[in-house]
Amino acid sequence: MRTSDVVIVGASLSGAAAAKRLVDAGLETVILERQELPRHKICSGILSPRGHRFLLENFGPLPREALHEPTSCKGVTFHFPSMVSMSMDFFGGTTPHLHRKFSDHWAIKQSGAEVHDRTSFVGLEDKGDHVLVTARKQGQDILYKARTVIGADGPSSLVIRSVYPDYPKQIPWFFVGQKFHDIVDCPLDPQYFHFWFHPDLGHYTWSHARDGQQIVGVGFKRGDNFDARHKNVVRYLAEKHHVRLSEHTSHEGCAENFGPSLINRYVFGKGNVLITGQASGFLNMIGEGMSCTLHSGALAGEAVVEAGRRARPVQEVYRRMIASEVRRTTDQWNPLKIAFGRPHEADFPAALMKLSWRERGLVLRDIWRFILLYKEFKWGRQIALAAAQRLAAAGYPGGRWL
Amino acid sequence: MSIGPDHVAPDALVGIPRQRTNAGRWVADGWSAFRDSLRAQGVGLLEDAATRGIFATDAGGTAYGLPHGVVIARSAAQISSLLKAAQTHAVPVTVRGGGLTTEGESVAYGGVLLDMTGMSNVLEIDERALTVRTQAGIFWSALAERLRRQGLDYLSAPLNLTSSVGGTLGVGGIDVNSPHLGCSADQALALQVVTPTGEIVECSDTENATLFQRVILGYGQFGVITEATLRVRRYQPLRMRYFYYASLRAAIADLQMLDAEEASDYSGILTMMDKAITLLVAFDSDEKEARFERAFLSRLHGAGEFAFAVRTAIFYALRPWRWREALYLYRRKSVLFPEFRRPEFHRGGKMHDRTVVFSRAVWKHWGRRQMVIPDLATSAEKFIEAVERGNEVCRRYFPYYTLYCVGIKLREDHRTHYELSCIPPDARGRAYGCEFEPMLGDAVYSRDTLQSFKNEIYDVGVALGASYYRFGGMMKGYIRRVFGDQLVEHHLTMKRAADPAMILNRDVVF
Q: Shortest CB distance from A92 goes to which of B13, B52, B56?
């Protein structure tokens, strides 16, 4: 049996951020990773400026190998069915286009924690003052004993399942997939991340340049057909934006837990088990998850350190500390905050004001039609409730968190 | 594979480029050889987790780092052996006094942490020459207590008296009498210093003057201060007066006027809110107070307590949506005012021992487990703008915060001491400092939120060409931007010459 202060499940950015805080404070930290490092990761790789700043401040300047080509992204372009497009630059300047395979590995190495890769998490048992974790490496079971376990293993988290077995059934699941195409002719600006508010294309439709190829991605409710959905988008891009691509050379996809941050229904764990990163439900506007993941990961690490220093239960400390990140993330989906609050990463209201009155009307109409696509999830009332609660208090109520 | 220039970091971020604030841990190469060499010389090195854990963070609570071992300072000779061994084995040594740094300057990211509090004796008090010789690990509170027995007082010390004398001499030390008497670092007459290569040297303005210039306000880069001779004065009870303002601009203008005219012995500004600003003025002698009443009282724009209370009550009565603010103000007033007027510290209208009164109040009503107090130090001319811009930043981040503004009288003959320090290069006569302290209360903020807040305050300093009182550590990225490469390179060359292995207080300035 291996004993340490903390076991982190998942060698990703949130794991690295948590590990950095823990190792700095002198706690012995072991990270378990299912795959062999460096491992591949499905991601657009476009990090928000806040995430960029976090990486710089905590891990130092990014090595070149941690970046794709183009190495940076200037901002986001929204496209609407009425053929209005709006480009918005990120506030902080350009932001990196991360090659997740190498950026994650670099961050993990910089954190200074001990990594056990090719070790899959199997289950855990919270004994009150410590947690026993079972993992498997090359068919052999290994037992870990730690005071705290941090689950940073992404949307389909096994750590969540071991604490809340029926959680996956409680939330809607989406599938996002991207295909890589060689470019024949692409008028879309490679410096921007492109996003379509189009109900016929899918719940989440995007495109951007990477390493000389064009990525065409689409997200939809689980159960639909990826190939058909994707073909539809490619056809639309060719027709409306004159994007000519050759047949894709590769593709990938994964399940997404989009939703918890909209309706303030995060999952942060139980007892000595903390859930963090995208596993807990953090997702920024436009689906960027890395910056929340880094910050929530760091908060999980900070909470363990604080709990130890102040002799408080770690779960209580974590929930108090995470409130700021919840506030920030859920604010982005709060209609009142979008309309009247201070914009976070890029200024949508300012870009809207640059358009003519007619175009503004079209954009708002298109956004409304796009939102109706999400009607079946019945989030409207919950979002309105969260927005109302936010008016009365400084944050979102923790009572709805798991 | 060679790594080419990085297109997105750190200069891709518009505005002030960011850089690494949470330093990486030192890779413990050669640690065991170093440990053996220390053991052979009889220097005690503590390596247990509990001892090391005590020093994992500083008062700021945003920087964390764990030393590989801790040495408790006992004598200059012991520190000399430690530094010699550290030079040989290239082991970083971080020196810590009270640990009241807020940017991780006294946090060891690996290597050895040298705890100076082990050297805390007062060695000699000369009542005729009005000097004291003390070991540098002593806290100001302990020194004050020792001086009081002989009816003496230090000249100026930080409000927070659990900082150590050595640490304060290395960074500045301001008090409400700094506009009149200068910062603590200017009170030192002579020092015993252990250089980074392990020589024990006595220095002053006349003896080893170059070393003296570098060590004073040197942020621990050029030596460990082990003993200091300080100027002291006769102890005097003081008479306090308070004036209240609703505008920062008016309060600062009055503060600067009083300072320029030498109208009082103590002066400073403490805000409760943007609409409630206190200018405090105090006097050592009745003559000075009489002169103040005669010549300056009518020139002040501030109101007395009663007039201000009436005015504020009317202001909030007309703005019912701001009653939460008014309530906060009222609560704050009702705990703070009695604290500064406690009968046990007052006799005949005079405050006996401001040391006790102030540092009690600071800990009780401003101190929390985390000290977040970014600051700006500017010349007198730029000060108002710096404070107003910093105040804007505070307002965006926190509902309640305090500003503490005070002047620092400069010594023209110490200009070389002031190079690359908290004293802004363009300040003449008097510099001004403002600390921006959010009232964190029981609210919990992530380190990143606090760091962003501090960065925004420091950005104002870059924009205005100011300096900082808290200087280095997590904010060392600002040093080159504020002082320019030429000056920093010049000091780096001196540092390399003095400390070839670059072991003493790494990651603080360079």
A: B13
Please state, in angstroms and rounded to a whole number, the distance separating the CA atoms of residues B447 and B454: 10
Q: What is the domain extent for residue B160?
A: 122-234
Q: Do A91 and B14 touch (CB under 8 A)?
A: yes
Chain A, nearest residue to B57 by Cα: A25
Q: Which of B409, B361, B353, B406 is nearest to B153 (CA)?
A: B353
User: How far does the CA of residue A121 sit from the closest CA of chain B (Å)?
Assistant: 28
The residue in chain A having the minimum alpha-carbon distance to the alpha carbon of residue B61 is: A306
Same domain assignment for residues B210 and B280? no
Superfamily of domain covering A174-256? D-Amino Acid Oxidase, subunit A, domain 2 (3.30.9.10)
Hey, how many other C-beta atoms are within 10 angstroms of the C-beta on A33?
Answer: 24
Instruction: Choose which CATH entry (3.40.980.10, 3.50.50.60, 2.40.110.10, 3.40.640.10) describes domain A2-79+89-170+261-331.
Output: 3.50.50.60
**DSSP secondary structure code for residue B303 in this structure:** B
Regarding whether B309 and B410 lie in a shared domain, the answer is: yes
And the tokens for B444? Answer: 């919990």
Q: What angle do CA A239, A244, A248 make, to 5 degrees?
A: 115
Q: What are B235-293's pLDDT values in tens digits? A: 989 999 999 999 999 999 999 999 999 999 999 999 988 889 999 999 999 999 999 99
pLDDT recorded at residue A383: 84
Supply the ipTM of this predicted assembly: 0.80
In contact, A182 and A200? CB cutoff 8 Å: no
pLDDT at B81 over 90: yes
Which residues 6+ apart lie within 8 Å of B293 measured at CB?
Answer: none
Q: What is the CATH number of the domain that holds B159?
A: 3.30.465.10
At residue B12 the predicted structure's pLDDT band, cuts being 50, 70 and 90, is low
What is the rounded average pLDDT of the residues B20-36?
87
Least confident range of A113-117, A397-401, B112-116, B381-385: A397-401
Domain ranges in chain A?
2-79+89-170+261-331, 174-256
Q: Alpha-carbon dihedral of residues B290, B292, B295, B299, nearest 10 degrees?
A: -140
CB contact under 8 A, B56 and A96: no
> Which pLDDT does position A259 carry in this prediction?
80
Instruction: Name the band, by pLDDT with cuts 50, 70 and 90, for residue B3.
Output: very low
- Distance, CA of B420 to CA of B55 (rounded, Å): 27
Number of structural domains, chain B?
Answer: 2
Please check whether residue A64 touches B, CB under 8 A: yes
- What CA–CA distance (Å, rounded) separates A354 from A360? 9
- Kindly determine whether residue B25 and residue A24, on different chains, have CB atoms separated by under 8 Å: yes
| Confidence at residue B359, expressed as pLDDT on a 0 to 100 scale | 82
Chain B neighbors of A52, CB-CB under 8 A: 8-9, 12-13
pLDDT in tens, A139-174: 899 999 999 999 999 888 899 999 998 888 888 888
Asked whether residue B220 is assigned to any structural domain, the reply reads yes
- Please name every residue paired with A132 in a beta bridge, in sequence order, or none if there are none: A125, A145
CATH (domain of B307): 3.40.462
